[in-house]
Amino acid sequence: MAMISASEKRILVTLGDPAGIGPEAALRAYMQIDGDGAAVVFVGDAEVLREAAALIGIKPAFQVIDSVSDAIFEKGTLNIIDVGAVKGLSWQKCIPTAIGGWASAQYINRAVELILKGEAAALVTAPISKEALKLGGINFPGHTEMLAELSATNDYAMMLVGGQIRVILVTIHTAIRNVPELITRGRVLGAIRHAASAAYMLGIDTPRIAVAGLNPHAGESGMFGMEEAEEITPAVEAARQEGIPVSGPYPPDTIFYKAYKGEVDIVVCMYHDQGLIPLKMAAFQRSVNITVGLPFIRTSPGHGTAYDIAWRGTASGDSTAEAIKMASLLRIPSGARR
């Protein structure tokens, strides 16, 4: 599929934590997609991006702008809105720091502000660090929660795509011990609804949505837990009554094989690692995160800041390039602005 042209959709790319691989990955992604028609504008610190460009040996024509409307979408031209968060500061590379966490939050704030003003319809976020955010006094566990608050979104879900496997999560960033009490029919039904919305964004008009159980063998008729019978199955039945094409709950140890074989379009998962382990096993380098429920498109690479390999000139841009391509291909959700 061809990406949407510059005249149809503008995409902002935040640099993530400047201490991590985000700036380098973003530049390598830019090299992959440059000239393909995506209207990309970076949001971050120009001096960080220039240093990353020198590190990997590229010399794009930097176009520092204040507004997306000033961007020049031509091959070889790199548009960046310079937030100036680390300007004049002694910031450190390869470790989580207060400056890095604060700066990454400023990039996100600026990008969302631009989108809500109607200057862009899609956001691609390079990785941030939860530890660095905390050090920087930013009280969010991650991108998803921050974006929801900035856009006044109360109902949202995290979806990840990697090859044939697509997963959407009922619970996101919480300890495993908290998961069972959070598996309610309301939350499961909400995730199924988000799966249907995600299918629309992906252009899947007749989706096959499957729900994974929480317990081994999907509870085995109550032998290994009652969450399936008391919460998950009623949610699946309620979704069917709404006309959503969904089935389950299925044993978690078999449903992902069906997804891998292309027999299922989206798997609704009960907790973070249930969905992300099989997905990253299948497509670690090219997995993409999509936040469903926001009033704009948001994607991100499926990896983290990778401080251990940051600023060595070896980080891959594949996942970030996939995130940009995905943002270009997704249908714009209701309420989004161009």
From TrEMBL:
Q: What class of enzyme is it?
A: oxidoreductase
What GO terms are given for molecular function?
4-hydroxythreonine-4-phosphate dehydrogenase activity
Q: Give coiled-coil spans as residue ranges.
A: none
Q: Which SUPFAM superfamilies match?
A: Isocitrate/Isopropylmalate dehydrogenase-like
The record's EC number reads 1.1.1.262
Q: Which domain of life is it from?
A: Bacteria
Keywords, alphabetical? Metal-binding, NAD, Oxidoreductase
InterPro entries documented for this protein: PdxA_fam
- This protein's name: 4-hydroxythreonine-4-phosphate dehydrogenase
This chain's source organism reads Candidatus Magnetominusculus xianensis
